[in-house]
Design a protein that fits this description.
The structure holds 2 protein chains of 2 kinds.
Chain A lengths: L2 E2 L20 E2 L5 E5 L9 E2 L6 E2 L4 E4 L8 E2 L4 E10 L6 E9 L20 H10 L12 H4 L10 E6 L8 H8 L1 H15 L4 E6 L3 H11 L5 E6 L8 H9 L14 E5 H12 L6 E7 L7 E6 L4 H7 L7 E6 L6 E3 L12 E6 H4 L12 H5 L6 H9 L3 H6 L10 H5 L6 H21 L1
Parallel strand pairs in A: 1-12, 2-15, 10-11, 10-13, 11-12, 14-18
Antiparallel strand pairs in A: 3-9, 4-6, 5-8, 6-7, 8-9, 14-15, 16-17, 16-18
Chain B lengths: L19 H11 L1 H11 L1 H24 L10 H11 L7 H16 L12 H12 L4 H7 L17 H7 L8 H6 L11 H13 L6 H16 L4 H6 L3 H8 L10 H21 L6 H8 L3 H7 L24
Helix pairs in contact in B: 1-4, 1-10, 2-3, 2-10, 3-4, 3-5, 4-5, 4-6, 5-6, 6-15, 10-13, 11-13, 11-14, 14-15
Classes of the chains: A alpha/beta, B mainly alpha.
């Protein structure tokens, strides 16, 4: 069987053995949930409830008029305890959030009922349902799915890629989902293809998950328009641009988006969430979260209600085995470090990773020896050695001239660096500075 | 739940576990085969030169950094890599005081005075070797004064005989050793020249470990082979004799002083190969590997600037690349 891949990248030990054979279990009912009003790329929502209000499971409690946005629903039934700023796991600052005390009843909101067959609705109705259900990309960036499936009219889309690469080490949420709910994933993909009007679907899985490949092939056997593609295990295979290159050999232009080369990419988890909308009527109120890491007593794949606190889930695997060095939302390559475990699971939380102090502490960087390992590893052909170097010296104009903005922040360069130089970290700062300067220039 | 003291930094949070020290250690390991062959041929002479160069390298690195108020960095092993490479590039009976001077120039001047590891423009070991060749006449008086202190450890089979490349130059082809002898092990010249096989084993180890890129040595050796053949010399001797294989695998692949791009590595190899062939065939000197590498070193920033890879997703326009050298002050 042909296995496809992309140029560059690195081999990363995947540490998936900690959880890959553990079925998804439902996390215990949270007593209190925290729902930030911004869980997606785009405009934050306005709260629709007030302190003291009673809410039901699946009830819309936050929404926005903006096109690029996604409403937020309650994942429990209970009483709104407060609407106040709370530390956000992705933004690293306090964001207006709705805090709800669960009554443990899970009484479901009236609007939550199966929608029925997607093909009986018009494309616009399907898109509206996806939007109303608050679906966002579950791979991490949390881009509103309804917006994604509405590309500009002049773009011709001919392929929909469902991303099951899950190339981040440690994470197994997508893997377990493919094993346990392959029909739903397939159904979700068909809905998405219907919404965009494309005939070719690809479900792409790295070859370190042969069981997932087998399951998905089994359910997709009778779907002539959907292919299951085996990808070589290589980080960052699951990056949007890299997976398109691997599967279709098309390169998204610098600064462009997948629709510029006629492709849509969604995560397998997103497809399963879309299936839930039509089959159960359930908006996005729960997701699979891998709670893992060597600093924990145990590791687990949980079905988690969005809004559950990290500390609650860490408690459920027995807490810390050794002193934790770093708590990360997501995987170790692109995940976001947390200042505390008192932050909620949001729509984009694919995992909670707790590294030991030893794993997390890189020691002091030594001088760059120009070994060019970062150059070989960069999947978008940049020269991280130079960009990172200029960024560290705050020479952002030069960093920009070396195409710093094309960096996809996959982390390969810093991962391979024998001098332990914080290359990706420095380039991220440079990108931020360059964008700020551009904004300023635009204003003048 | 008690509040743990957490580290907080941007991603990535995982690293390959590689360190500069480990990479340097691998280079030293890769030199073990040729060191063994040298010791078999030259006994204590080889060991003595290796010790002289390494001790000088360590003392120079330590002393220079102390003078400049920097923390010492002996644990990165780079001083020992330079010391060992320079020792191997010397003949086994080389006067030890010159070896000390050469090592001092290599580590002290070419490396530490240029900012230390990672900042040097010239390959330190090659710089030291070439400095010794150029400065040799200046040290005639010193050699006379120091002669009584010259140490010799036992008799060496082939000491002052002409090297194969010199024989080739002199047109004394009948005295040349066989290809297989040159490939497997043949004394003469600098220590590193004594066995192509031993050098290759080390080079392949570095390739296998991912520390060096195949492009530079392959294109350097290939260019010398092709050019010497075209120009009517014996290409096999030009590859097997002299320091070409050693220089290509261990000096032209030095991380700091060679290009970072794949295309740049090819250009560096070809440029070096052309220079080696021209020096060997048209200059008085029989050997030119060290000179060639030293001449290519300062071109590296230019080569890197010219060979910036195509951006992912960028459509390449066929045009002559514009050289933009930015001088930035900060």
């Amino acid at each position: 069987m042909e296995r496809r891949t992309f140029p560059g990248g690195v081999h990363v030990p995947h540490f998936k053995e900690l959880t890959e054979h553990k079925p998804i279990v439902r996390a215990r009912e949270p007593k209190r949930i925290v729902l930030p009003l911004s869980q997606h790329t785009g405009a934050p929502c306005e709260p629709l409830v007030r302190e003291g209000d009673h809410v039901k499971l699946g009830q819309k409690i936050g929404a926005s008029e903006a096109f690029v946005s996604a409403p937020i629903h309650s994942s429990v039934s209970g009483t709104v305890a407060a609407v106040q700023p709370f530390l956000h796991p992705a933004l690293g600052r306090e964001v207006l959030s709705i805090i709800i005390d669960s009554d443990g009843q899970d009484s479901v909101h009236e609007e939550v009922r199966p929608k029925g067959d997607y093909a009986s609705f018009s494309v616009d109705e399907v898109k509206r349902m996806i939007r109303e259900a608050g679906i966002v990309g579950l791979g991490g960036a949390a881009f509103p799915t309804a917006v994604k499936v509405s590309p500009p009219k002049e773009k011709r889309i001919d392929a929909y890629i469902l991303n099951g690469a899950e190339c981040e080490p440690f994470l197994t949420a997508d893997h377990r989902l493919m094993l346990e709910r392959p029909e739903d994933i397939l159904y979700g993909l068909k809905v998405l293809m219907y919404a965009v009007g494309v005939q070719n679907g690809y479900i792409c899985i790295e070859d370190n998950k042969p069981d997932a490949l087998r399951e998905m092939r089994k359910v997709a056997a009778n779907e002539p328009s959907i292919k299951v593609v085996e990808l070589k295990t290589r980080y960052p295979q699951g990056s949007e641009k890299q997976i398109i290159k691997a599967v279709l050999n098309r390169e998204v232009p610098p600064g462009g988006l997948p629709f510029d080369v006629g492709v849509m990419v969604s995560n397998v988890g997103t497809a399963a969430a879309v299936a839930d909308v039509f089959k159960k009527g359930l908006p996005l109120v729960e997701r699979v979260v891998t709670v893992t890491g060597h600093a924990l007593v145990d590791q687990q794949n949980f079905q988690v209600k969005i809004g559950t606190l990290f500390s609650d889930l860490i408690d459920q695997v027995g807490g810390y085995k050794v002193e934790p060095g770093k708590i990360i939302m997501g995987g170790p390559m692109m995940g976001i470090a947390q200042m505390t475990a008192e932050v909620p699971v949001i729509k984009g939380t694919s995992g909670i990773l707790v590294l030991t102090r030893q794993q997390a502490d890189w020691g002091e960087p030594s001088p760059c020896i120009k070994c060019a390992k970062c150059v070989d590893a960069c999947p978008v052909n940049l020269l991280p050695v130079f960009i990172g170097g200029y960024a560290e010296r705050e020479m952002y104009d030069v960093a920009e001239s070396m195409n710093a903005l094309d960096c996809i922040e996959c982390g390969c360069c810093a991962y391979v660096c024998p001098a332990r130089r914080p290359l990706t970290q420095a380039i991220r700062v440079a990108k931020w500075e360059i964008n700020e300067r551009r904004k300023k220039r635009g204003k003048k | 739940m008690e509040k743990p003291d957490l580290l907080y930094s941007p991603p990535p949070h995982l690293n390959s576990g590689d360190t500069v020290t480990r990479a340097m250690r691998d280079v030293l390991l890769a030199l073990v085969p040729i060191i063994i062959v040298s010791i078999i041929f030259y006994r204590l002479n080889a060991i003595f030169i290796l010790i002289v160069c390494n001790v000088t390298a360590a003392c120079t690195a330590w002393g220079m950094r102390k003078l400049m108020g920097k923390p010492h960095s002996l644990e990165d092993l780079s001083a020992f890599v330079t010391g060992t490479l320079l020792a191997l590039a010397l003949p086994p009976t080389f006067p030890w005081w010159l070896a000390v001077i050469g090592t001092f120039l290599a580590v002290g001047v070419a490396k530490e005075m240029c900012g230390g590891l990672g900042w040097n423009l010239f390959n330190p070991a090659v710089f030291g070797r070439v400095a010794l060749i150029i400065l040799a006449p200046a040290f005639v008086w010193l050699n006379a004064d120091m002669a009584p202190l010259h140490l010799r450890f036992g008799i060496i089979d082939v000491t002052s005989g002409a090297t194969p490349l010199a024989l080739l130059k002199l047109g004394q082809g009948q005295l040349l050793p066989s290809y297989s002898a040159l490939f497997i092990a043949h004394p003469g010249g600098s220590m590193a020249e004594s066995s192509v096989l031993a050098v290759l084993i080390g080079g392949l180890y570095l390739l296998f470990k991912g520390h060096i890129n195949w492009r530079t040595p392959v294109f350097a050796i290939g260019t010398v082979f092709a050019l010497t053949m075209l120009l009517g010399s014996n290409p096999f001797y030009h590859v097997l004799a002299g320091g070409l294989v050693f220089g290509s695998f261990f000096m032209a692949t030095d991380w700091v002083t060679t290009p970072i791009t794949d295309a740049g590595k090819i250009i560096f190899g070809i440029g070096m190969g052309i220079l080696v062939a021209l020096i060997r065939l048209y200059q008085a000197a029989p050997e030119g590997v060290a000179f060639s590498i030293l001449l290519m070193n300062p071109l590296v920033p230019l080569i890197d600037a010219l060979t910036r890879p195509r951006k992912f997703g960028q459509i390449v326009e066929a045009r002559i690349p514009v050289i933009r050298i930015k001088t930035v002050s900060k």
